[in-house]
Specification:
five-stranded mixed beta sheet; 567 residues; elongated; three-stranded antiparallel beta sheet
Length: 567
């Protein structure tokens, strides 16, 4: 290509006859299979040069079919700028100066100054430079960040791991929408979340102590309720966290002040109850400083030879722990155990008879087994034998009846047993109190049930009836309180237990439905009432005074301030 270009450039006519003010531009275009070069030769009074250009520049000038065209626009550009641009383009395109091309430039009148030409640098072979550590550096001494060679693993397990990491399961991004896609059929049962196979489950090892903690939580819920169990669980978690931190000094932990509930003691009376019937004045004022009292200030008729022993009262204490429960047996196991005990007892009896310790029992002869037991003796005197057999049978029957009578309870014992079953509860030694609130207790039938059931269950307390509400307070054992609660909350239909006269008089006024609710239930150390009574009061102040006289005025306040939202 360079040789062809040189031959074509030699054929360019000399342009020596140019005026100082005129300039002629000749463009020669050389086309080839790889590239095209356009050489523009500008002539002037002071300079001449060869202008190599790209085919794109030549195409922008739009030369005629002959390949030579005059470009009038170059006259306005200085010759030096045109030469510089031609040399820069030629250098970028990789053209080098041919020795045969040198005389062509000298043909033009005027020489281009040496400082305006850009000399081409000769190509140099690449040089490898390294520092003292063997790292590659450039000519200025800077490190060249070359990529580190990666170790190629030939193990099969590493190759499989690389393949597995490179392989990615792509989930379908297109979501099926039944509203937008008319071809979607819901009956197909396609679940877009289950298009891919789920991950295979692996072994899940249980932590140590997990099942014991779950069992403890279930036990707390059954014993204290869900809310209380959560509080206890939170406290245990805090204690476990405090124990886990070994670097904490336990002496630096803040300890709150211990709150102890002191039981209220009975006030000290001015005179003891055992001295009151003996003293005339009813006080200790008549006693002198030395502790001597004259006989005229004592009631001598109250002083006898008898000694009064007060009835011993067991002090209130914590209930005893329940005894160990026997093993529950099925009916079949109970029958089998009973048979084994009976056989063992009969075997011991036979052994004692064999040793002569007890007499053998008489043969149990009946008319049905007469011939089988006696044999030939039965035929000698059958009439006499029959009378003996009948008398022996009557004797055995009478012994059976006597044993039953001896084992039978007397009416007093039967009544005591029934009372013990109904009222005695060895697990509780304290008094339980229940406070009920009723909207309307004016119906005589329900009032009778409330009164009689309290007396039959041996409960103490009172029923206070006022114009607005009615309050029932009962005290007693756990069994009696439980039975009375079923009466108040289940058995009596309070919605129908309304006085008919009140309904006729207040037809226009809408009253809330009559109902009974349990306001409070708890235990107290001592009962406040001696028996159960019913009080009818006109005002609420009078009703509260009835309870306040017994020292339980707060029961009325609880019932008045109670709301159904608490349930």
């Amino acid at each position: 290509m360079q040789k062809d270009l040189a031959e074509k450039l030699k054929k360019i006519p000399l342009l020596n006859k140019g005026t100082g003010s005129s300039s002629v531009a000749t463009s020669v275009t050389v086309q080839g299979p790889v590239s095209s070069v356009t050489t523009a030769i500008a002539s002037g009074p002071s300079s001449s040069s060869v202008l190599p250009s790209t085919s794109a520049a030549a195409a922008s000038m739009k030369p005629p079919a002959g390949g030579v065209a005059a470009v009038p626009g170059l006259a306005s550009i200085s010759n030096l700028e045109a030469v510089k641009r031609a040399q820069e383009l030629a250098a970028k395109m990789g053209f080098r100066q041919d020795p045969q091309f040198a005389p062509l430039i000298n043909l033009f009148p005027g020489q281009v100054q040496a400082d305006t030409l850009v000399p081409q640098k000769p190509t140099k072979a690449p040089v490898l430079r390294v520092d003292a550590l063997g790292r590659e550096i450039d000519e200025h001494g800077n490190l060249i960040n070359a990529t580190k060679p990666s170790n190629l693993s030939t193990l099969k397990v590493n190759i499989n791991k690389q393949k597995k990491d490179a392989f990615q399961i792509l989930k379908p991004e297109v979501e099926v929408d039944a509203e937008s896609n008319p071809h979607f059929d819901v009956r197909m049962g396609i679940n877009k979340d289950k298009l891919l196979r789920p991950k295979r489950m692996t072994f899940q090892f249980v932590e140590e102590g997990k099942w014991s903690k779950d069992a403890e939580i279930i036990k707390l819920k059954s014993q204290f309720g869900e809310a209380k169990a959560k509080e206890l669980k939170a406290k245990q978690a805090q204690l476990a966290k405090a124990k886990a931190k070994a670097d904490i000094n336990p002496n630096l932990i803040e300890v709150s002040e211990r709150i102890t509930k002191e039981k209220l003691k009975d006030p000290i009376p001015e005179i003891e109850w055992w001295d009151l019937p003996i003293l005339v004045s009813g006080s200790y004022d008549d006693i002198a400083d030395d502790g001597v009292m004259s006989k005229d200030k004592l009631k001598k008729e109250k002083i006898t030879i008898y000694i009064e022993h007060p009835k011993p009262i067991e002090p209130p204490a914590e209930p005893a722990p329940p005894p160990p429960q026997p093993l529950k047996l099925t009916k079949k196991e109970q029958k089998k155990l009973r048979t084994q005990r009976r056989l063992a007892r009969e075997k011991d009896k036979q052994e004692m008879i064999r040793q002569g310790l007890i007499e053998p029992p008489k043969p149990k002869v009946k008319l049905s087994n007469l011939m089988k037991v006696l044999g030939s003796e039965a035929t000698q005197d059958p009439t006499k034998l029959e009378m003996e057999i009948r008398s022996a049978a009557a004797e055995r029957e009478q012994a059976h009846v006597d044993r039953n009578i001896a084992r039978k309870l007397t009416p007093a014992e039967r009544r005591e047993k029934k009372e013990r079953k109904l009222f005695d509860d060895p697990n509780t030694v304290e008094t339980i109190v229940s406070v009920y609130r009723i909207n309307d207790l004016s119906h005589p039938k329900t009032r009778f049930k409330v009164d009689v059931n309290a007396q039959e269950n041996r409960l103490t307390g009172c029923a206070v009836i006022s114009e607005g509400i009615s309050v029932v307070v009962v005290e007693g054992g756990s069994k009696s309180i439980k039975r009375y609660g079923k009466l108040m909350l289940r058995r009596i239909n309070w919605a129908e237990a309304v006085n008919d006269n009140d309904d006729d008089g207040d037809e226009d006024e809408e009253k809330p439905p009559n109902k009974c609710v349990l306001v409070w239930q708890g235990s107290v150390a001592k009962s406040s009432f001696s028996r159960f009574s019913v009080h009818e009061c006109i005002t609420e102040a009078a009703a509260r005074k009835v309870l306040a006289d017994a020292g339980v005025g707060h029961y009325w306040d609880l019932a008045v301030n109670f709301s159904d939202d608490e349930f």
